Amino acid sequence: MVIAEDHLLVRAGIEALIATESGAEVVGVCSGYEALMECVDQEKPDVVVTDIRMPPTMSDEGIRAATALRAGHPDVAVLVLSQFLDPTYLLALIEQGSSRRGYLLKERIAAPGELISAVRTVASGGSFIDPVVVESLVAAKARNDAGLLRHLTPRERETLAEVAAGRSNLAIATAFNVSERAVEKYINSIFVKLGLRGDRDTNRRVKAVLMFLDSGPGGGEIRPR
Question: Could you tell me which residues carry 4-aspartylphosphate (predicted)?
Fold first, then answer.
């Protein structure tokens, strides 16, 4: 794992938390964009944990690093840490796909198991979105989106709940005891009914989940993993 963070105390805290995880090893520590990209080229880590704002511009270096790594090192997972509750950063992060990408607020790093859970999720090929950021996105959406969920069949609604819980198509197929192809059909039908035909698949999944979470009391319940 490579850690990119320009604040010494935050960087030390992340290293300390990672050290508690069995099998996790920090192979590089950086404080800026250029150093991060060079470190990844040399060390070829499985995961990068990076701040959003770092030298040289202190703007969106973490997001730009994630985009560059998607092209140059597609197998490297990236967890972006931010002190800003700004959905714009999240949408930029997942614009080219949400697999192996995560977004966690810095204020939540100290929460028991939160950082480790996020790292594990992206390292295994999944996506992690801080629940607080999800709530912010949901609050910004038009309330009438939730009405579209009434058109879903019970099985489609169950499928969407599984997607919201972060499960892959294969995991959903196993849970429902159906083929992965059947799950793909459920999800495609969900996209059509929710009016999500035009977007790329990864972004449609995110938007569908947000609509599910915004569906009101009881409608957006996610079962524990």
Answer: 51
The two tokens of residue 169 are: 């198509």
Among 71, 12, 9, 82, residue whose Cα is nearest residue 37: 71
Give the residue ranges of DSSP H helices in the chain: 8-19, 33-43, 61-72, 87-93, 114-123, 131-140, 154-164, 169-176, 180-193, 201-213
8 A C-beta contact, residue 54 and residue 31: yes
Terminal CA-to-CA distance of the chain, rounded, Å? 25
| Integer CA distances (angstroms), 135 to 87, 129, 209, 224, in order | 10, 10, 11, 18
Cα 125 from Cα 120, distance rounded (Å): 9
The whole-number pLDDT of residue 88 equals 77
pLDDT, one tens digit per residue, over 98-141 is 889 999 999 888 887 889 999 999 999 988 888 777 766 666 55
2-4 sheet: strands from edge to edge: 28-30, 2-4, 47-51, 77-82, 101-105, 127-129
Q: CA–CA distance from 130 to each of 58, 90, 156, 174 (Å)? A: 22, 10, 25, 26
